[in-house]
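Subject: sequence -> structure tokens, single chain

Hey, anyone have a minute? Need the predicted structure for the following. Not urgent.
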Amino acid sequence: MTDAPDPPPPQAPPPQAAAALASAPGAASARVVPLASGRAIEIAEEGAEERIQIRAAAGQLLVSIRLTDEGPVLSLAGASLEIAAAKTLSLSCETLRIQAAQDAAVEVGGSLHERVRGSVVREAGRSARTTAREVKVEASPGGVEIRANDDVDIVGERVRLNSEDPPMPLSWEEFRARQALAGGAAPPSALTGGQGAAPGEPDDRGPSAD
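Reply:
Had a minute. Here:
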């Protein structure tokens, strides 16, 4: 029965990684664990701070974990990073910054609710578009201001300005009844006598026949 061969001794880190580790702060007290892939793990202490780093074979820093008095600090660097959570992913911080050099996409399968206690400023270098089955814009107690250097187009089946909700009243009696229920002001006396046409309807009364 032959004895099992002894495991190979640990290899020294590649020259690029060794140079990066040697130039790092506190590298004199750092312990380096080489990996078979050529990457290396560095464990070091700097005063009251401990540091664990993983470097590529060429010496680039991939993962850094610093244990400080204020808590752990995690840094990741790579061509692609993926985070997946089966149920909930929560982010909580004092300041959140997200920067994308090119495109960004957010896809939500359910509803999206945003609550901002301060002001909201959105700037688009080109065009901005909002598409929904129904759109409502409300300002309370302030106002709504729309400015454009070119034309402003409003296209709809009916464009109503300070008008009654549909269906429109067919007579002044119906209009007055709605105003009374809503607590609104009464129409002018010239129209309350039933002499005018119904709101939104032309007065089609022609000259009386002889």
